[in-house]
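Support reply, case 0932

Customer input (verbatim):
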Amino acid sequence: MTLPFETAELPTGILAQLSPLVGRVLAPNPSAFTYTGTETYLIGTTELAVIDPGPDIPEHLEALERAIGGRPVKAILCTHTHRDHSPAARPLAEATGGRIIGCAPLTLMDDGPRADAAFDADYRPDRVLTDGEQISGEGWTLEALATPGHTSNHLCFALLEENALFTGDHIMGWSTTVVSPPDGDMADYMRSMQRLVERDDAVYYPAHGDQVDNPQRLARGMMGHRKHREGQIVRHLREPGGAAIPDMVKEMYKGVDPRLHPAAGRSVLAHLLDLKARGVVREQNGLWETVAA
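Our regenerated output:
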């Protein structure tokens, strides 16, 4: 799953100014899934917006308050509600008076395998942004771009003044994102990727990993990577007797940190469900196989 990007070690709790309007503070929550940690972005110079406030960790909240330095916070925006992105929104709002704005709360309604533990059940936005809606402050304008796939409520935010896009977990600067059913949806993810390919953003600021200075090339490459994975899956399923997901993961993700294999299995399942909806594969007793033409 990991792509070959080189990323320098980044200090946590320090405001790094990336452009005239964009600052970044890294949260101290590194892991096999968050890489060096969640990157919280501060937008503006006098009146601020905060994108992806991150986990509710006291030292991270203290670092954000230091970086804000008493400046007014107009909006605290969340790209989605995984627990490494949104839990700090409420305490930061209480500390700064900023309103929580951005993605919708996420409620999973199905009875199948669920990933509730990964979501922030306490997220309560003051305002939900829909696709194309804008919010502005002194010197900046942010526009919401609906990008479902990683999660159904995922938003990216475009900074119009700098032609920049904050991509959350839809595109990361170190790895492909996990698409985990039932909420994660591969068909939605690919449609969202196509939207980004058709845009002219000059830079991506992901929530994990380095900024991306060749955004369309990366987006096209990630779409190609997913199509390659789909082809691998179909080839596996052409073998007599079909295949189970763990066996496919073992073959397809050789060399990948074994801690990521369960997440890889979820993305394989997302591909399989997409292929099933298109009439390409079927599942019987835990084994998947291609459908005869």
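We compared this against your earlier run and they match. Two observations from our side: The first helix runs from residue 58 to 68. Residues 1-8, 110-116 have pLDDT under 50 and may be disordered. Please reopen the case if you see a mismatch on your end.
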